[in-house]
Amino acid sequence: MPQNPHADPPADPGDSGFLRQFGRSEETTEFHSPIPEGYEGGRHKYVAILGTVMSGLGKGIFSSSLAKLLKDKGLSVAPIKMEGYLNIDSGTLNPYRHGEVFVLADGTECDMDLVTYERMLDQDLDRSNFVTSGQIYADILRLEREGGFLGQDVQMIPHVTGQVKLLLRKLAMSGGPGGGPADVVFIEVGGTVGDYENSFYIEALRELAFEEGVQSTCFVALTYIIEPAILGEQKSKAAQLGIKRLMGAGIQPHIIACRAHRPVTTTVIQKIAMYSNVPIKRVFSMHDRESIYTVPEAMWAEGLDREILSILDLYDRVDPVHEERARHRWSGFAERIRAARRHRITIGITGKYTAVRDAYASIERAIEHAATHLSADVDVKWLDTSDVDASNVADRIGQGLHAVIVPGGFGERGFEGKIRCVECVRTRGIPYLGICLGFQAAVIEYARNILGLTGANSTEFDADCEHPVIAELPEQKKIEGLGGTMRLGARDVLLEPDTLAAFLFAPDRSMTIRQRFRHRWEAEPAYVEQLSAAGLRFSGRHPEQPIMQILELDKKVHPYFVASQFHPEMTSRPLRPHPMFMGLVAAAIVRANPDAGRKPVGSDLARWLRPAGASPAPEPQIRITNTTGTTGTTTPA
Ligand code: GLN
């Protein structure tokens, strides 16, 4: 006779009943580890980077540099940042607290960490490369409501951990460049081992390594070696305790990377090796370097990449010719970083978050990329525009600045001051790069001061202004299908021939470029014809819709005045600096030293200086068939 699984367990003589109350077991299995269809065991490898002792050690820089070394060897890599926080994305995070909000090509808003990977790997990422606890819980709760767990009690283990493993395996299958498979997935876990919010990630990684088998997963503990000033020597105890904590979670690290101010001493390395079961050759000193871009070379010199290849049995996937070429290109850039600079310039950036520089980190990086290529030493001056007015603008920016950037922003504070700054740089011929809000400020300034429309403004700041030259267009909202949210992610921009934009972007004459956007307001089409006729040239626009995306002034009236509705800083890469920043830095070099422009030293500078008279006088390019602004159309030139 079949046994009734729900029957009480047989009573134990002398049993008080204490054990019996737990005796009814209804579950069929405690194992939940969904594997994506077509997943090939052994095809993909995993490197997990976990922080101990404290956060803020540069896990992202470490992980992206290591991933770069493997990518340079011809392997395909896919990074992922696993965040502990509950926000679904970074769109609503305050840049004061969290640094800038960055947008990926698919429109995902994320924080700066992912950008480090895009820059180091020169690889576009998307939403699959970033996950928060909030996203994972939301998925699990949705699945539960949809009946996806068939009456089981849904738990952190195995369901939440199962979801994490599923995400990682999916990424392995399609997270490589161009959506192909990844040889190696680099997993950066946010926070520090021991934090409540990331402990389920750590458990999921332990399970993943177990399921995938030997030589599948490499655990790297990134730790910190303290050097208290009162002692004047490095101490390893905090690092040891942090690593022990990781081992307590069931993870034996394969590699230990020691962040430190100065090179880690042999004694400390020996101690750490001894107490954490890691051979000395796999304990690395990752002390401070002059630039994050020299980290890959340092890792290579120490053999960190080769240890990873051994641990994961990857030697036969390496392409030495590819590696040689990639290393050569990168070391050329690293050499330029270290080399003495030929030029010295000062760039002013108007910033609402002047107190928190991270809010504009990508702009600083983009300047750094361009300046490295053009051998310029750049002094960045932050300008709080909240008290800038007609009486002090010349003092604030007219003196000593060789270029000005008005970056993106939201909210009214300091906006009038920014418009004053634009006026000042426009009338004084100071090189200008306007980004997003900086584009809008340039339109408003031109409308007010050249067209005489004193009531010109953005409806973001004055909903009832007399001349809404920057407006939120209901028509566009329909086109973009985003219903009131922002226009986010990569979009095409069609360039106008014979313009500064075409000079910068299209030496090869391909007139469509793809750039990243994050905005809600834009130039109102009803004013475009008037502005164009008065000399504000819209040299880049949406291929089909009346959305202005780049503006500029003619070379005859200004050496370098350009602004974009998109964010050029988001796609600047060390080896492929953004053309608008190259143009800005080149123009600033000439502003600082006109001789440099007469005899450009080296071909790099010459490439970015537009020859005088290369552009014809501006003509209106956009024909608006309806001036209400709601049904405006363009006729492409
Ligand atoms: N606040 C402006 C808009 O939404 C500019 C946005 C930005 O600079 N990123 O259009």
Report on the structure:
This protein is of the alpha/beta class. Helix 1 crosses helix 9 and helix 14 crosses helix 15. It has 21 helices and 21 strands. It has two domains: about 45-95 and about 130-335, Rossmann fold, CATH 3.40.50; about 340-635, Class I glutamine amidotransferase (GATase) domain (Rossmann fold, 3-Layer(aba) Sandwich), CATH 3.40.50.880. The N and C termini lie far apart (about 85 Å). The protein binds glutamine. Glutamine binds near residues 409, 519 and 521. Glutamine (GLN) binds near residues 437, 460, 518 and 519.
CATH architecture descriptor text of the largest domain? 3-Layer(aba) Sandwich
What structural class do you assign from the helix and strand content? alpha/beta
Strands side by side in the biggest sheet: 11-10-12-13-21-20-19-16-17
Helix segment count? 21
Largest sheet: 9 strands, mixed
CATH topology of the largest domain: Rossmann fold
List low-confidence stretches: 1-15, 18-27, 614-637
Q: How much helix is in the residues?
A: 25-40%
End-to-end separation in angstroms reads 86 Å
Question: What is the typical, i.e. mean, pLDDT?
Answer: 86
Give the overall shape.
Answer: globular
Number of strands: 21
CATH homologous superfamily identity of the largest domain: Class I glutamine amidotransferase (GATase) domain
Assigned CATH class of the largest domain: Alpha Beta
Strand content: 15-25%
Bound molecules: glutamine
- Please, how many domains? 2
